[in-house]
Design a protein that fits this description.
Layout lengths: L1 E6 L7 H13 L7 E4 L3 H5 L3 E3 L7 H8 L21 H12 L2 E8 L1 H16 L5 E6 L15 H19 L6 E7 L6 H4 L14 E3 L7 H12 L4 E7 L30 H12 L3 E6 L3 H4 L6 H19 L5 E9 L4 E8 L27 H4 L11 E2 L2 E2 L10
Parallel strand pairs: 1-2, 1-4, 4-5, 5-10, 6-8, 6-9, 7-8
Antiparallel strand pairs: 2-3, 10-11, 12-13
């Protein structure tokens, strides 16, 4: 039997580590011959664009380098499968690819939307009487997948965001004049990543002084009032803001700072709230103000990745293939936290349908009554996920990344 693995959705620091986990487990399994990688997610299966991973991952050094390389080595996609009852064309092409290459197991690494693909594809295969198994491996820096305690990729993104915020805090404190710095952080509907900046308190930082999440009530007027209060206590005020905060006011002109475009799953491309709030502070308060959008650096800054994140991402990839070999299909692997101190998780599986197209929100119990901060109770959740450092391979003073051969791109 041969197997195939694909990556989908937004890049992360850990998604290649999950790929390595699947690959390593495949090498250890006598019943598995070829291990194929699908180029650009499910699109590669539809178009029969596969590569034999054994031809490009040849040594232990290759595996380690790939494990610490950010983004998706196989390429990604945001492709939404129609229901097979509506249009079976894509499914028929995928099944043809499976049959041509004798693929008996397909592992799909991705987020909420990718689990939708796992559900639909496994249902179609059952419908046509195929015994090909499909298993989902979670990943997203947003940490918004239901069921799982956390997602691979989140810990590294949280570590980068917190470390970068700390550097911004140092930078903002050097001048004698009052200032406000707004850090815009990814998070469409859930504020996990923005909230994770609270871990800086463990090292004695007071900032970010204000933290705003999509799960909390937000108004521009209250934001200005909050900033004024903090300026009375701090020369340089730092506010961490999720890109997806909801502005409940008819007077908001946020749309002037956002593209308004959506992807195939109907998700809006956000970003722009930092610039909007910067303009608001400039107009209402008139102090020195800047906004900083961390943007895609949050997803792929592997130079400061979390070792816990990378190790767990590889482990869950291994477990996914084992689950498929045991005969499971239509499932998603997930982490179940056993303990905070000492930190421990188990890896289990659930129906992928419980995570497909659904989101896990940041708990209201961890949001301050003022709706502008995160409580200390959240720290014990976040802190274990950012622990440890990877021994990054360096050359000429720069990190080295694994590159897919040009002819296979």
């Amino acid at each position: 039997m041969n197997i195939a693995v694909a990556q989908s959705g937004g890049p992360t620091c850990a998604i290649n580590a999950s790929l390595v986990g699947v690959f390593k487990q495949g090498l250890l399994t006598e019943d598995i011959d070829a291990i194929f990688g699908s180029i650009n997610g499910i699109e590669g299966m539809i178009n029969d664009e596969l590569i034999n991973l054994k031809s490009i991952i040849r040594t232990n050094e290759d595996m380690e380098l790939l494990r610490q390389t950010p983004s998706t080595m196989l390429g990604s996609c945001r492709y939404k499968l129609k229901d097979h009852e509506e249009d079976p064309t894509d499914y028929e092409k995928i099944l043809e690819t499976f049959t041509t290459h004798r693929i008996g197991i397909f592992i799909y690494i991705g987020g909420n939307d990718s689990m939708d693909t796992v559900v639909k594809l496994s249902a179609y295969l059952a419908h046509v009487g195929s015994d090909i198994r499909v298993i989902g491996v979670p990943k997203t820096i947003d940490n918004d997948l239901p069921v799982t305690d956390h997602t691979p990729g989140f810990g590294s993104a949280a570590k980068y965001v917190a470390a970068t915020s700390q550097e911004i805090i140092r930078d903002s404190s050097v001048y004698s004049i009052p200032s406000v710095t707004i850090i815009e952080i990814m998070g469409r509907h859930s504020g996990w990543l923005t909230a994770s900046t609270c871990i800086l308190r463990v090292n004695g930082e007071e900032a970010p002084h204000l933290i705003y999440l999509p799960e909390a009530d937000f108004s521009p007027e209250q934001f200005i009032e909050d900033v004024r209060k903090e300026m009375a206590k701090h020369k340089a005020v730092i506010a961490a803001v999720s890109e997806g905060i909801a502005l409940h006011t008819e007077n908001s002109d946020l749309e002037n700072f956002q593209s308004g475009a959506t992807d195939v799953f109907g998700h809006k491309y956000l970003s722009g709230v930092g610039k909007y709030l910067e303009r608001l502070v400039a107009d209402r308060i008139g102090c020195k103000v800047r906004s900083i959008e961390l943007n895609v650096m949050q997803r792929c800054s592997s130079h400061i990745c979390s070792r816990t994140d990378i190790d767990e991402a590889e482990r869950i990839g291994r477990h996914a293939l084992r689950a498929a070999l045991d005969g499971n299909t239509g499932k998603m692997m997930f982490f179940k936290r056993v303990s905070d101190v000492p930190y421990a998780v188990t890896i289990e599986m659930t129906d992928a349908a419980l995570a497909a197209n659904q989101e896990k929100m940041f708990p209201q119990k961890w949001i301050s009554p003022e709706q502008n901060q995160v409580t200390d109770a959240a720290i014990s959740y976040f802190l274990p996920l950012v622990q440890g450092e990877v021994d990054i391979c360096m050359k000429n003073g720069m990190p080295v990344h694994f590159h897919r051969p040009l002819q296979m791109r």
